[in-house]
């Protein structure tokens, strides 16, 4: 039932989004949203709990900050505040404990506070959205008190917000008075409905902290709405697997899920992809030796073609807690592929192949495998979206669970697609070629593979000296070559 409510709410919300005046100009916001002075009465609608160990927490009273030392707050350590999102059932979600535990266990010298705004979040979605400013104000108020009473600098604060919590963290940053900004805000799949397309003052934006990063994991659009926000809202915006669909979440089976499990299936699918942002962040803490690298790209289509594995001038960055905090004037959209399970890291390889003197139009299906000093890749099927003709270079993205090491050998096989074979056989039947029967040929020019994680590019040359011709259903082996010859290649795409 609650899931049905979720669906209805989202739909309703979207239709209302034009009409509801949750917006308000910046001037209005600063007038009404000003954090009251200390001597004015202030009632916090939000509970803040200092996370200690296991399930142990200690409630902080933003008005009575003498609770801080007795709770075990250590003023010399950074402060991380976790803020949850909209609540369908009014219950605390399990990821909060996982994230708080991962932060405390791996960072140790850190204060972790969990924001509890469940009563305001367990409402119709548009109401919960309106409450986000109130909660943002409460957080700003807490930080203000910490600064005034404990000289605790706000730049040592890192807000981590999930879904609506991401925008709450943004509002906290904008409600804060004084020149000093919050150190960092991380938005984990910031909510989309009623925030998409809004002005920077009405959502999470790069202005809200010294450094803002966001991970977008469920921006799949259905009936004109997406649960997570699609637009860039941070200095670095990460779009794992394109940001709309996450492997292991079976979004493509959403309708089958509903038929099989009822709306529970829908909830699981939504929760899986939306919450993946949280688990990617947790992964960055728990698997420090397996940090996922993401690359700047115009869109996921270009990324899938392997065009974007470049790290020059901060074009790549690490996803999660250990991100390189380079201040940016503009948002950067970064892409990466992940595994369906933790550890999520994948290694990215950009494969470039040049075909020369291709006379007839062909639709090849290639299988390639790479052999490196550490691992073998196994076979990767590559299907071309366009026909091959003339002298042209094609690029693809190949991902691997494990680091292959230095690439030594590449095997290429031109598969014989059944469909094409049938056509070929038919042609042969109709037109008897006789002894002058011509087999289709594919001539390969330069081949290279770039490893995103190391930025190394490896060139390959034919092993046999029978040219670089590839025939249908035959393995062709190429070995690493460091000759200067291949360097004359065009260097258009990095
Ligand atoms: C606070 O944390 C620091 C480490 O960052 C530690 O050296 C110090 O003893 C802690 N203070 C208290 C009161 O626990
Ligand atoms: C590719 O070439 C074949 C003929 O070999 C043609 O039937 C097909 O329409 C072409 N496809 C594209 C996408 O151009
Ligand atoms: C891959 O390379 C290793 C040595 O690096 C070698 O032992 C192995 O046989 C190679 N595999 C293939 C399929 O050629
Ligand atoms: C392809 O390039 C070769 C030289 O590398 C040239 O001789 C040939 O005419 C070109 N073919 C086409 C179809 O452009």
UniProtKB/TrEMBL annotation:
Chloroplast listed as a keyword: no
Residue intervals of the PLAT domain: 347-480
Entry EC number(s): 3.1.1.3, 3.1.1.32, 3.1.1.5
Catalyses which reaction(s): a 1,2-diacyl-sn-glycero-3-phosphocholine + H2O = a 2-acyl-sn-glycero-3-phosphocholine + a fatty acid + H(+); 1,2,3-tributanoylglycerol + H2O = dibutanoylglycerol + butanoate + H(+); a 1-acyl-sn-glycero-3-phosphocholine + H2O = sn-glycerol 3-phosphocholine + a fatty acid + H(+); 1-hexadecanoyl-sn-glycero-3-phosphocholine + H2O = sn-glycerol 3-phosphocholine + hexadecanoate + H(+)
Location of the protein in the cell: Secreted
InterPro entries, per the entry: AB_hydrolase_fold, Lipase, Lipase_hep, Lipase_LIPH, Lipase_N, PLAT/LH2_dom, PLAT/LH2_dom_sf, TAG_lipase
A Gene Ontology BP annotation from the UniProt entry: lipid catabolic process
Keywords: Calcium, Glycoprotein, HDL, Heparin-binding, Hydrolase, Lipid degradation, Lipid metabolism, Metal-binding, Secreted, Signal
GO function terms (MF aspect): apolipoprotein binding; heparin binding; lipoprotein lipase activity; metal ion binding; phosphatidylcholine lysophospholipase activity; phospholipase A1 activity
Gene Ontology cellular component annotations, sorted alphabetically: high-density lipoprotein particle
Subunit and interaction comment: Homodimer.
Official protein name in the record: Hepatic triacylglycerol lipase
């Amino acid at each position: 039932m609650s899931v049905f409510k979720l669906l209805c709410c989202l739909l309703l919300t979207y239709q209302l989004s034009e009409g509801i005046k949750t917006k308000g100009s910046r001037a209005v916001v600063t007038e009404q949203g000003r954090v009251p002075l200390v001597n004015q009465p202030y009632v916090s609608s939000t509970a803040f709990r200092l996370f200690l160990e296991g399930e142990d927490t200690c409630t902080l009273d933003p008005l009575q900050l003498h609770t801080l030392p007795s709770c075990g707050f250590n003023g010399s350590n950074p402060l991380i505040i976790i803020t949850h999102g909209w609540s369908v059932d009014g219950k605390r979600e399990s990821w909060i404990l996982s994230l708080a535990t991962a932060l405390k266990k791996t960072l140790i010298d850190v204060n972790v506070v969990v924001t509890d705004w469940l009563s305001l979040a367990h409402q119709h979605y548009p109401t919960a959205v309106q409450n986000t400013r109130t909660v943002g104000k409460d957080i700003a108020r807490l930080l203000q008190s910490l600064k005034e009473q404990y000289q605790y600098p706000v730049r040592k604060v890192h807000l981590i917000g999930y879904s609506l919590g991401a925008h709450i963290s943004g509002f906290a940053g904008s409600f804060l008075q004084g020149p000093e900004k919050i150190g960092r805000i991380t938005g984990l799949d910031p909510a989309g409905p009623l925030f998409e397309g809004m002005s920077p003052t009405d959502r999470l934006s790069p202005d809200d902290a010294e450094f803002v990063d966001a991970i977008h994991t469920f921006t799949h659009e259905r009936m004109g709405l997406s649960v997570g926000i699609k637009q860039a809202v941070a200095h670095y915006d990460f779009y794992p697997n394109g940001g709309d669909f996450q492997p292991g979440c079976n979004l493509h089976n959403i309708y089958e899920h509903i038929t099989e499990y009822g709306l529970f299936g829908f909830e699981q699918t939504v929760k899986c992809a939306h919450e993946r942002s949280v688990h990617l962040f947790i992964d960055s803490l728990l698997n420090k030796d397996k940090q996922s690298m993401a690359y700047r790209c115009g869109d996921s289509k270009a990324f899938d073609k392997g065009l974007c594995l470049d790290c020059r001038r901060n074009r790549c960055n690490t996803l999660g807690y250990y991100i390189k905090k380079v201040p940016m004037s503009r948002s950067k959209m970064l892409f990466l592929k992940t595994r369906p399970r933790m550890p999520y890291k994948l290694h990215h390889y950009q494969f470039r192949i040049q075909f020369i003197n291709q006379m007839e139009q062909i639709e090849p299906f290639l299988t390639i495998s790479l052999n490196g000093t550490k691992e073998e890749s196994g076979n990767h099927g590559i299907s071309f979206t366009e026909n091959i003709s003339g002298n042209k270079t094609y690029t693809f993205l190949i991902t691997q669970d494990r680091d292959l090491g230095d690439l030594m050998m590449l095997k290429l096989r031109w598969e014989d697609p059944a469909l094409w074979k049938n056509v070929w056989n038919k042609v042969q039947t109709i037109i008897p070629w006789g002894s002058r029967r011509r087999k289709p040929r594919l001539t390969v020019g330069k081949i290279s593979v770039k490893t995103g994680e190391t930025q190394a590019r490896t060139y390959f040359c034919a092993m046999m000296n029978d040219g670089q011709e590839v025939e249908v259903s035959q393995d062709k082996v190429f070995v690493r070559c460091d000759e200067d010859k291949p360097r004359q290649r065009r260097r258009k795409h990095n």
